[in-house]
Amino acid sequence: MFLLILALLPCYSVVGISSDDSPHVATNGLPFPWSKVRLPNYIIPIHYHLLIHPNLTALNFSGSVRIEIDVKNNTNWVVLHSKNLEITTATILDESEALQSDKQLPVLEYPAHEQIAIFSPKILISGEKYFLHLEFAAPLADGFYGFYRSTYKTKNGETRVLASTHFEPTSARMAFPCFDEPSFKANYSIKIRRRQTHIALSNMPIEQTVPLEDGLFEDHFEASVRMSTYLVAFIVCDFKSVSGRTTSGIDVSIYAVPDKWHQTHYALEAAVKMLEFYEEYFNIYYPLPKQDLIAIPDFQSGAMENWGLTTYRETSLLFDPDTSSASDKLWVTMVIGHELAHQWFGNLVTMEWWNDIWLNEGFARYMEFVSVDATYPDLRVEDYLLDTCFAAIGRDSLNSSRPISSAAENPTQIKEMFDTVSYDKGACILHMLRHFLTDDVFQSGIVRYLRRFSYKNAKNEDLWDSIANTCSDDDFTSGEFCYSSGQAAKNAYRYAGEHLDLKVMMNTWTLQKGIPLVTVDRQGSVLKIRQERFLKTMLPSDPAWLSMQQGYLWHVPLTYMTSNSKTIVRHLLETQSDTIKIQGDVKWVKFNTDMNGYYIVHYEGDGWDTLINLMKKNHTALSYKDRANLVHNAFQLVTAGRLPLSKALDLTGYLKSETHNVPLLQGLGYLETFYKMVEKRNIIDVTQNLKAYILHYFKAVIDKQTWSDTGSVSDRKLRSEVVSLACDLGYLPCVEKAKDLFNSWVKSKGTISLPTDVTETIYSIGAQEEEGWTFLLEKYQVSFSEAEKYKILGALTTSRVSDKLLRLLNLGMEGEVIKTQDLSSLIYSVARNPKGHFMAWNFVKKNWNTLVEKFQLGSFCIRNIIIGTTAQFSSKDELEGIKEFFESIQEQSSQLRVTQVAVENVQKNIMWLERNLEPLRMWLQKNLPRGTN
């Protein structure tokens, strides 16, 4: 092959070569004709005709693709993506399908950019159509990207193999040569060869099945709609399914391994309901004839939105009535809601480039809440939106955060874009926008966006243009969805009596990183307000403070309530400072009503004291969301050095009277975090006193929890968290009850049903004994419920015996007993155990290269491992050790934003302890009743 390429290669004076000064060198030593990471835009794919033949015995696949291409500039070269594929044949045909050359065409490969180039002896003429025909082969990938192999065990112990795809963001090129960028949308006609014992699935329904020789069958799928490469999917497996149909005639099927078929029924009900909801909400019919949802036994992320064939981790799709808890049900429902939202946001309208991935992920994350609230109101999903925004604030208040819309070029940078900022912050600013515009205006705006850019690509500003009614006269102009440009100006919206430019406003939230801190200083009937960038690892007295604040300004849609009025007052803060006049004799003011805005509020003067007194005397004067928001803001301000810890702890005093789980769990969560920190540092007096304080002051809440599955989803969520904390703190009635239930369960050989909401706590208590731990590990290996296995594995990691923790880590690395997909969460769980946090970190350092091979640099799992293990540290020595390790892997760590996040997290912990350990000690001594410590 090498000699053939040498014989055919001409000189490099043809049109279409990259104009960069120094050409890159292909694997055969010859110059590669393109030097950019992004593909040239002068060749456009129109239609892929793809044939794939996986061999599940030999664990490889072969295939061919004929790509209809449109040439925009004269050129001799076609440059496209390919990774780890052996290209065996390359030809180019003209529109009449005549060969451009009677010889094999040379293929150059440049692995650093995952690109190949095919040379055509005849110039490809601008405006003409051609067909690029390639034949290729590769092993089925060992991992979670591209066309990869997955395995599962039957109840008889037989291991079975399937082959599945996961292409987002840049791995379609591992399955077939393609133009693997989101803007290169095309149609796909796919054929898959399989044995009779298997089925084949793809984005579209099967059109016909053709019998071949050797017992093979070839399934021909209908041609797809125009879509990006990362949404293509195909699977060959022996799964079973359950099916239903929406009112608009869409066939919906849930697929799982045969032994788990009985766990598919809830997902079918939820998927049908949500698909119907989205068709109505978006006022756009789902454009495909079917929607398959399939649970893949080996899957790195939660799920993937491939158009018409969404793939899921088993815990994200399967619901076992016997072992799945209320939280499991909520999780499955939300993940399905997320992936089905993507069928419009992401699939129908796709971001132009990965810098705006938030247009996909932020919307899908937010639509989880909108869709589940509409279809399953009993799940009280709105309770969890606050947690989503709290998570976003946690990341965004570090200097290592990034703007929602950020530059990303290479695959590692692109993978890192799938993070808290894109998902959670994206969802929270959309929530803020929805409340700012009203539900109806927001909904009609996003429908306009979806209609204007259907089957196309969009940028950040396209969304704001669509919502701001800036359609052109020839756009869709039904009054409900779009207005002509003569009817609506860009500043169509009024807020607090003022006109505003929506695009300018929203750019302050998407094009700069960070979150604003709004400080309120009440002076009589005047509120003086000012904004600055909120940072948790730097004080205003620090030398770098001013430079960190330079240029940061948000357009903040403020809302507030006062003691005089239940009406929400609005004020748009567009400058660094402003004043607001309030009417009447006002006792208190609370900003960011129901936490619908994405900002932190600090009350100067006696503002916090007034609110603390209000909470103690009449906490129901504020909504449960406002109460949770106050608790959160107070402790965030403590971390930032803006509020004394004693004030935030005083605020939590009211929680004894709290009946809503959201603020209660918010306050308990902070106390538990402090407890874990001082426990890991072995600060014995504070650890004991804090434990005594929690158990004393929350005794009534703990004691009223029943060990059952009764009550609302909120009740059950609270039960799960409170019982877990009580047993973890060694509360004797909790520990004894858990022991009794665990022993009964063991006695029945694991056949009796335990209350699902507290199952993991029961397992965790049982895992502290040698026999219990061994029994759980055995049960883990034979269980066919992923929900149950997840709880068992979590319990196993709570053992205080180091050898057992190390055994689990080694089993995770081996990937047989504990699947590789669960390794990152296993490492994270071991790190949370005081006996395991050094072990987990040392394990990561020792096995770093292997972990990167398993999960790929920049992936969610690698980020989870880095954050999960380092977040436990809070000393300067530990910080230096982390920095030294990152320096030792400089080539890789320099590509990762997450290493900066990890370092800053530890700096934050160090600063918190330096500032707050003594105040915590003093406050506990003052507030603990005599005899409790």
Tell me what the structure shows.
This protein is an alpha+beta fold and 933 residues long. The protein is 40% helix and 21% strand. The chain is built from 31 helices and 32 strands. The strands form 10 sheets. The chain has a 7-stranded mixed sheet, with no helix packed on it. A 5-stranded mixed sheet has the order 17-18-19-21-20. Strands 30-27-26-32 form a 4-stranded mixed sheet. Strand 17 (240-245) and strand 18 (251-256) form a beta hairpin. The chain is globular, with a radius of gyration of 29 Å. The model is unreliable at 1-20 and 470-492 (pLDDT under 50).
Short description:
The protein has 933 residues and is α+β, with helices and mostly antiparallel strands.
Distance between the termini: 79 Å
Give the beta-strand count.
32
Oligomer: single chain
Task: List the strand order in the largest sheet.
Answer: 6-9-4-3-12-15-14
Shape: globular
**How much of the residues is beta strand, in percent?**
15-25%
Average pLDDT for all residues:
93
Low-confidence stretches: 1-20, 470-492
Q: Helix proportion of residues, in percent?
A: 40-55%
The major sheet is characterized as: 7 strands, mixed
Rg for CA atoms: 29 Å
Count the DSSP helices.
Answer: 31
